Amino acid sequence: MYAKVVLVACSMLLFVAGDARAQNKAAAAAHADMGASRAVAVLLPTGQNKVSGVVFFDKKGDTVNVSGKISGLTPGMHGFHVHQFGDITGLTDGMSAGGHFNPENKPHGKPEDKERHVGDLGNIKAGDDGVATIDIKDSMLDLGGAHSILGRSLVVHANPDKFTQPVGDAGGRVAVGVIGLAGPPKQ
After folding, report:
1. Could you give the CA distance from residue 134 to residue 86 in angstroms, rounded to a whole number?
2. What are the tens digits of pLDDT across the range 60-106?
3. Catalytic (active site) residue 173
4. Which of the residues 78, 138, 157, 161 is marked catalytic?
5. CA 20 to 30 Å from 136, out of 32, 53, 77, 154?
C-alpha cells in the first residue's frame, strides 16, 4: 500500500512539475514584450536549512534593481544567482533549478564584468544575525526579451562565490524561489 501511495504521489509531482515548467515558459513568453516592471521571488529553504526571504526586481530604464531581505543564513558571504529553470520541485537540494542563467554562453564572472552569465549577481553578505539586506543594480537582467528572468529561479548558496570557472564554487543551494510577476509596490 505504501509503495502505491508513493508511486501516485511521485506521478502527481512529476505531472505538476511538468505543468509548472510549461506555465513558467508560457508566462515568460506572454510577458516578454509587455514591459513588465516588477518581479518577485519568495525564497524557500532547501533540505534542513532555515533560509527564507523575499526579493524584488524592479525595472527602471536599462537597470533592474534587486532588493529584499533574506534571513536564516550563516554570517558572511553567500553566492547569489539567477538560475535557468523556475523549477523548485527538488527542495531537498535545489538542483531542479538547473545551472546559472546564461543565454549567451559566457564565462562565469563578477557582476561588474561585461562578459558573464546574465544570472551572475555575485555575493550577498549576512550579518551576525543571519540577515542579508539586498540592494543591487544590474544592467544585464531584464524582465522581458532574451535576458528575461521571469519564470526562472533565484538561488542563494551556502558559501561565497569565488568567481572561479565554470560556476564560482559557491557550494550547495540553501534557498530557492521562482521569479514571477509582482504587483506594484505598496505605498
Report:
1. 21
2. 999 999 999 999 999 999 999 999 999 999 999 999 999 999 999 99
3. yes
4. 157
5. 32
Of 31, 100, 147, 152, which residue is the catalytic one?
100
| C-alpha cell belonging to residue 2 | 505504501
Q: Does residue 78 carry a catalytic annotation?
A: no
Beta-ladder partners of 123 = 79
Which domains are seen in the chain, by residue range?
2-181 (2.60.40.200)
Q: How many CB atoms lie within 10 A of CB 23?
A: 12
- What's this model's pTM, rounded to 2 decimal places? 0.80
H-only helix segments in the chain: 2-31
Say which residue the cell 533592474 belongs to: 64
Residues in the chain: 187
Catalytic annotation, pick one of 31, 78, 81, 116: 81
| CB-neighbour burial class of residue 181 (10 A; exposed 0-12, middle 13-18, buried 19+) | middle
